[in-house]
Every structure is written in C-alpha cells, then in structure tokens.
Design a protein that fits this description.
Bound molecules: iron/sulfur cluster
Oligomer: single chain
Organism: Dioscorea alata
Number of strands: 12
Strand content: 15-25%
CATH architecture: Alpha-Beta Barrel
Keywords: Methyltransferase, Transferase
CATH topology: TIM Barrel
Enzyme class: transferase
EC number: 2.1.1.192
Protein name: 23S rRNA (Adenine(2503)-C(2))-methyltransferase protein
C-alpha cells in the first residue's frame, strides 16, 4: 500500500492499493486526549444509501484483512509522536463492513489482540447499515463495539434512504438486537442517526425513536448531515437537532449530538470516496418527501 497525506483536506489519508484502487482513511483528533482513526473496509459500497457519497460509487471490491489493519497501523505510526496517540478505531470509512465480514472480523481481532495492536475491544467499533445475519454473527464472535446506522423510524423512510431495509426491515433489525444483546454483558449498541431536514427529523420521529429502541441497551448519536455534491438532502437546523435531542434525553435515553464540524467526514459509515462516471442509481423520492428534497 502506498499512502498520501492531503493537508488541505485535513487529516485524510489516501491509500493506493496494489491494483491502483484508492481507499480513504480519516484521523479525527478530538479533545480530551481521544484520537480516532476511521478505516475503510471496501472500495466503494454496494448498499446505495441515498444520503451517502460512498454509496454513489457502487462496490468495486472488498479489502483484505491486511489492507484494513494497515490503515490503523499507518495512522498510529503517523500520529504517535506529533499529535498524541490513536486511541480508538471505527469501521466507518468506505464500505459496509459486514458485507466483508470475514476480513472485518479478522481485522478487528488483530486490532484487539495482545500480539496485535492491543486496543481495548471497547475502543474498536464496527458500524453497519443493518445486515442482520452478519450482525448476529459479529455479536457472537467479537467483543468489539457495534454501531448501527439507523437514520429512520419507519420502514417507509428507511426503505427509501437505506435500501438494505427492504431485505432486513426495522422490526427484524431491532428485534435481533434486543434478543442478541441479552447475552452480552454490559454492552450497548450505538445507534447513529444522520438528521435529514424534513425526512427523519420531526418530533414524531423523536417520539417513535424512543418507542422502537425500547428494551435495547443503547446510546444514540445524532449527526448533522454533511451535504455533498449532487446530494438531495439538507441538514436539519441546529436548533431543531437540539430540541430533538432533548425529547430523547427527557425519555431517559443516552444521547449525543454531533453538530456540523470539521470531523463530518466520519458521519456514520461512508461519505468518503470519489464516485466517478459510473454511479449507483438514485431511487425514486416518495411522494410525501418531494417538498423536502
Ligand atoms: S452509508 Fe455506509 S452502508 Fe450506506 S452506502 Fe454509505 S458506506 Fe455504504
């Protein structure tokens, strides 16, 4: 793998693979001593989430275990001296990690192995758009943390913005989590919720969200949408995000709010990449959301 820093784009690292394909890794320095590396698991992605830049590329190929681990190794080498050390790894770069489950499980286990990178399993988070059988397998085989990109409170909206929902709907996804987490000790799933103006950000959505995650040990991360070229969607205004957060917090949920900042590159999974000429198709906008996009 070759690498290239792009200083003008912040802490983004481009890796050129042996077959000349390129993947992106992002390092996000946080305050309070936490610095996160966001690794890619595929070149492109097959999931076609409608708000995601990576999704426009379609899937080019899976990354090998070595190609995934190398991103964290390289970032750690680079950031150890100058900026403090890498403390967390998130699989939220290009790709749906569970679509490449064999290599992702192996890579995550190397990252937490005593003879590997020695991260605590709580500091390595794999994010999925909701591939239910693979999610089950991950929870049974790995102790690493799990994030689920939820992004909607009804099948109607999720079927549109995250087409994987047509195969594994919200009910099945959430019931599987409810069931599987019974066997995990002190384990909470992180729900990522990218807020899209007029699509998934009503107060009715907030109240529905409280209901649908009931009984699942979880935390919720509300993320400001980072519009990219050709995007249909608009970000929810900050004041509305705060009100949305307050409704969830008043119901007793643990909720974080990530307002728009320089670290938007890491928004749930994806949002990286260069779609090129051949792009995945945009899906038909449901009638009732035509005004919002
Ligand atoms: S949000 Fe994640 S799963 Fe969806 S298209 Fe983007 S990279 Fe793939």
């Amino acid at each position: 793998m070759k690498h290239q820093m792009e200083p003008e784009r912040g802490l983004q690292i481009l890796f050129t693979l042996e077959d000349e394909m390129v993947v992106e890794t992002v390092v996000i320095p946080f305050s309070q001593g936490r610095t996160t590396v966001c690794v890619s698991s595929q070149v492109g992605c097959a999931m076609n989430c409608q708000f995601c830049y990576t999704g426009r590329m379609g899937l080019r190929r899976h990354l090998s275990t070595a190609e995934i681990v190398e991103q964290a190794v390289f970032a750690r080498r680079l950031f150890t001296s100058e900026f403090g050390s890498i403390t967390n790894v998130v699989f939220m770069g290009m790709g749906e990690p569970f679509h490449n489950i064999e290599n992702v499980i192996k890579a995550a286990s190397i990252m937490v192995d005593e003879k590997g990178l020695q991260f605590s399993p709580r500091k390595v988070t794999v994010s999925t758009s909701g591939l239910v059988p693979q999610l089950k397998r991950f929870l049974r085989e790995s102790n690493c943390a799990l994030a689920v990109s939820l992004n909607a409170t009804t099948d109607e909206v999720r079927n549109w913005i995250m087409p994987i929902n047509r195969k594994y709907n919200l009910g099945l996804l959430l019931e599987t989590l409810r069931e599987e987490l019974r066997f995990k000790h002190r384990y909470k799933v992180l729900f990522e919720y990218v807020m899209l103006a007029g699509i998934n950000d009503s107060f009715e959505d907030a109240r529905r969200l409280i209901e649908i995650v009931r009984g699942i040990p979880c935390k919720i991360n509300l993320i400001s949408f980072n519009p990219h070229s050709g995007s249909l969607f608009k970000p929810t205004p900050e004041e509305k995000m705060i009100e949305f957060r307050n409704i969830l917090a008043e119901a007793g949920l643990v909720v974080f709010l990530r307002l728009s900042r320089g670290d938007d590159k890491m928004a749930a999974c994806g949002q990286l990449g260069e779609p090129g000429d051949i792009q995945a198709p945009m899906l038909r906008v449901p009638e009732q959301f035509r005004m919002a996009v």
